[in-house]
TrEMBL record:
Xref: Pfam families: IL28A (PF15177)
GO BP annotations, alphabetical order: cell surface receptor signaling pathway via JAK-STAT; defense response to virus; innate immune response; positive regulation of immune response
Leader sequence residues: 1-21
Name the record gives this protein: IFNL3 protein
Cellular-component GO terms for this entry: extracellular space
Keywords: Antiviral defense, Cytokine, Secreted, Signal
Compartments in which it is found: Secreted
Gene3D superfamilies linked: Interferon lambda
Keyword Phosphoprotein: no
Cross-referenced InterPro entries: IFN-lambda_sf, INF_lambda
UniProt xrefs under PANTHER family: INTERFERON LAMBDA-2-RELATED, INTERLEUKIN-28 AND 29
Family, per entry: Belongs to the lambda interferon family.
GO terms assigned for molecular function: cytokine activity
Length: 180
């Protein structure tokens, strides 16, 4: 009888000691990009369909995406910051009002990019100082997003949507944690 009553107590002590060794908040806030190593073809097709549908009627180009460097050339910590910024921009642009037919085409990609943005946020080191290249680009991005004119905003949206496949590639590269 005494052995049976000690068993639950021993299990409780084991669980409590393991809980202290592995804090619960690290599990919920950890970096979980592994699922983006191989993006599900259905999601990739939905994003490409949205890009093609949008590109039929729009032409615009901003200098924001003309970079002399690629994401794979950045250190991993910078790559994660870049992907986080690109996902913030992409979701912001997809959330802008759109014609009902295009809004429906955007629904699934917006859900995907919103989830990816949340996942990437858990990977960004808040104390990280980006390299000079990335810091310069982030400054340009902030300036482009602050632009108040509807024409500039529309151009930024167009360019962002047309370059959305590059955002997917950068997300995949960040998930691989190595050169792509």
């Amino acid at each position: 009888m005494l052995c049976l009553s000690l068993t639950p107590l021993l299990v409780l002590v084991l669980v409590v000691s393991l809980g202290a060794a592995f804090p619960q908040d690290t599990l919920s806030k950890g970096c979980r990009l592994f699922k983006y190593r191989n993006i599900v073809p259905e999601k990739q097709k939905a994003v490409d369909r949205m890009r093609q549908e949008f590109g039929k009627n729009h032409t615009c180009n901003t200098r924001l995406f003309h970079r002399k460097w690629n994401a794979v050339d950045l250190p991993m910590s910078d790559r994660v910051v870049l992907v986080a910024a690109e996902l913030n921009l992409t979701t912001a642009m997809l959330e802008l009002p759109a014609a009902p037919s295009f809004a429906e085409v955007c629904r699934q990609p917006l859900e995907f990019f919103t989830q990816a943005r949340e996942d990437v946020r858990g990977c960004v080191d808040p104390g990280h100082q980006p390299s000079g290249r990335l810091r310069n680009w982030l400054h340009k991005l902030q300036a482009a997003m602050r632009t108040g004119s509807a024409e500039s905003r529309a151009c930024l949206r167009t360019t962002t949507i047309l370059r959305v496949m590059q955002v997917l590639d950068n997300l995949r590269c960040a998930a691989l944690q190595d050169k792509c």
